Prior knowledge:
With about 230 residues, the chain is α/β, with parallel strands linked by helices. The protein has two domains: about 1-25 and about 145-195, no CATH class; about 30-140 and about 195-225, 3-Layer(aba) Sandwich (Rossmann fold). Helices cover about 20% and strands about 35% of the residues. It has six helices and 13 strands. The strands form two sheets. A seven-stranded mixed beta sheet has the order 5-4-3-6-7-13-12, sandwiched between helices. The protein has a six-stranded antiparallel beta sheet with strand order 1-2-11-10-9-8, with no helix packed on it. Helix 3 (about 60-65) links the parallel strand 3 and strand 4. The radius of gyration is 17 Å and the shape is globular.
Amino acid sequence: MSQRGRQGHSGTGRGSITPDGCAVELYERLPAGDEPDIVQGAVRAGADILELGSGVGRITHPLVRRGFSVTAVDESSEMLGRVSGARTVRSAIESLRLDTRFDVVLLGSFLVHAAAPGLRQELLETCRLHVKDDGCVLIQREGPGRHEDLPRERAVSGGLIRVVSSEPVRPGVRSVHVEYVFSDERWTQTFLSCPLSDDDFEQALAQAGLVIDAYLTEDRTWVRALPDTA
């Protein structure tokens, strides 16, 4: 099945595909990786977590099993239909307005690199709006060289993820094409990404009322930010 949705985003393959090109059945297959370990090591045990862009619950489910209370937010009803053990909210991240604030807000999946004009700031402002003043925001950002030395591939359980190309489409924005190859199925996704220097990233955080507390991984792809309450 092929579907074109959000401008610059598309996907192909079996099953439902969201407007940003994500295949629901594909994400049910992808492993959680080390993300749950990173989150657990960065926050207090049993924290209330707001997970923005949860998808099918790839990270949600391991966090729930580890004793965290998770509210999973996604704009796709097909994705949220696969989530169990967590409260679910169907909403675009940028327009989310809940009455609750959380110990932790999680913005993974490189969403901070959104290329649509103004969208990055709206995502970060949603994070700030929903985090407690003594809480934290965990953000996943692109590592160095992510758009270089392509094609590049890595093995996952039963298949391969191959980043085929990353081409400039306008100043500061690249179109990335990825293939997911398994023995019984193949999916593709094309999406836009806006690479950010450290200065650009920190400035975007500051504009949303957040400040970096710590880089959580050696490659600096996971960041813990705190509300700027000054």
